[in-house]
Amino acid sequence: EKGGWSSFMAKEISEEPEAVAKTLLGRLVDHKVRLPELDSLGEGTLENIDRIVIVACGTAAYAGMLGKYAIEKWSRIPVDVELAHEFRYRDPILTERTLVVSISQSGETMDTLLAVRHALEQGAKTLSICNTQGATIPRDSHAVLYTHAGPEVAVASTKAFVAQITALYLLGLRIGEARGTLSAEQIAENAAELLAIPEKIDEVLVASQSIGQLAHWMTDTQSVLFLGRNVGFPVALEGALKLKELAYIHAEGFAAGELKHGPIALIEPGQVVFVIVPSPRDPNSLHPKVVSNIQEIRARGARVIAIAEKGDAAVLPFADEVIPIPLAGSLFEPLLAVVPLHIFGMELAAAKGLDVDQPRNLAKSVTVE
Ligand code: M6R
């Protein structure tokens, strides 16, 4: 039931903090990662795998891209992320030391299911990250790590996305723990970051209340671009997908570093560009690079909407709008930065009088190839 909400999507966005909290529940205890459900992968699997392949479609694949950043950083195992429908048909190289991690909210997506079955036939280990108890993909996999976002009704995935990222980060910490690539202190630090996320998303929900107005003046907009770098890149892709599916607007997400390799030619006066700005405290110093990207597009007349850390003064002179997010470690920023983009997609669809929960031509779970 929708409760007092105008749509299931509005309700589900409001449940993003809870989706993260419930997915963490009982899994971070005494600075240790407890995921007994991974035991059914077989003893020694986490220590012995030499490669991870993440397979998923749509929003779940963007969660997978974020999983790659975290798992590689924490466990030093190479991770590839592939769209399940591409993976399945190119005879991928898989061995018994490959862990194939599928991500699916519904657990019924045919493309993802076929990728998992192919991995099983090739002798790989399979782990399903899924939001639906007893669905086909987890039943067919060696192990399942459930996300506990609760039922997601709106076609556009929102709370399941943040829960998937949370589950992938837990997995990354667990593998880092098993392989000794993370110290107890590092696990404790990252666990604290994760545990703080639900409250920070609550703050973002409050700070995002002006997005409805932003959406209102954009009902005639024909095209919106999204730029992000590093972990901001999958967030940009997610923001663009939401606009396509909900508001039927041409939208594209780019890696900000790619701008000068082509996309900057698209910038003309009035072009709306959302930019996901890394923290000025970012250890990779990506912040100045993204700020200079903003200056470049601003100089060509772009209308810049920046999603930036609270108090980031460097962005203010160059952005038409700034949506502030609370301070968090770099890897954790996507869990905050994506929330305004979910709200924006929903608000723009609503402002255009479209069906927010049931966009045209789409089904909640895609059970055909
Ligand atoms: O149920 P799944 O997570 O396997 O679904 C995957 C995609 O079809 C899904 O995320 C789709 O991209 C959403 N409609 C995006 O909001």
From TrEMBL:
Signal peptide start-end: none
GO MF annotation, one: glutamine-fructose-6-phosphate transaminase (isomerizing) activity
Catalytic activity: D-fructose 6-phosphate + L-glutamine = D-glucosamine 6-phosphate + L-glutamate
Residues at the catalytic site: 364
Cellular compartments annotated: Cytoplasm
Catalytic activity, EC: 2.6.1.16
Function in brief: Catalyzes the first step in hexosamine metabolism, converting fructose-6P into glucosamine-6P using glutamine as a nitrogen source.
Subunit structure: Homodimer.
Stated name of the protein: Glutamine--fructose-6-phosphate aminotransferase [isomerizing]
Species of the source: Conyzicola lurida
Gene name for this UniProt entry: glmS
Residues of the full protein shown: 248 to 616 of 616
